[in-house]
Amino acid sequence: MSEASELFENSKLVYNYIVNSPGSHLRRISRELNMHLSTLRYHIDYLERRELIESRKESNTIVYFAAGRLDALDKSIAPLLRQRRFRDVVLLIAYDPGLTHSEISARLSVKPSTLSKYLAVLEDRGMVSHERAGREKRYHVVEERKVVEFLLKYKKSFWDPFVDNVLEIYFER
Q1: Secondary structure string (H, E, C) spanning the chain
Q2: What is the pLDDT confidence band of residue 169, given thresholds at 50, 70 and 90?
């Protein structure tokens, strides 16, 4: 294989990964494709210059999307759903709407202070909302259908049995 065709194949591999796993960050892509970071950066730069992919800063990392494939809401939820703990919180609330903070904390075995941080980010993004019930807050997924559609569309990229179980139960209700 010539050097040019190998470069093309690697760029194609990176592009296809980003199409099928939107919201992934550089290290995840590198790990999943078993590609050195420097090589991956070269291909990402190449694809961005040709406007085939776009990047977005998320907290302290940069995530990637195929250009023109996702709407603003999908771009907002994708990076969070790529992170297991955020995904677990969203899936649990989608599975059992109206859970309280302490119920979520107990079911996921997450410290209440840690869960508060997750919920604050999810509420800030508009993925989760709460309603007051006396002294407690009950949580709901705001765009439940959108989250479920996203998880269904990219289910293969999550490799998470919890996603499969919640989606199966979601459609049974």
Answers
A1: CCHHHHHHHHHHHHHHHHHHCCCEEHHHHHHHHCCCHHHHHHHHHHHHHCCCEEEEEECCEEEEEECCCCCHHHHHHHHHHCCHHHHHHHHHHHHCCCEEHHHHHHHHCCCHHHHHHHHHHHHHCCCEEEEEECCEEEEEECCHHHHHHHHHHCHHHCCCHHHHHHHHHHHHC
A2: low
Q: Which fold has domain 77-172?
A: Arc Repressor Mutant, subunit A (1.10.10)
Question: Is 49's pLDDT higher than 60?
Answer: yes
**3-69: CATH number:** 1.10.10.10
Query: What's the pLDDT at 1?
Result: 55
Q: Residues 64-76: pLDDT tens digits?
A: 999 988 888 888 8
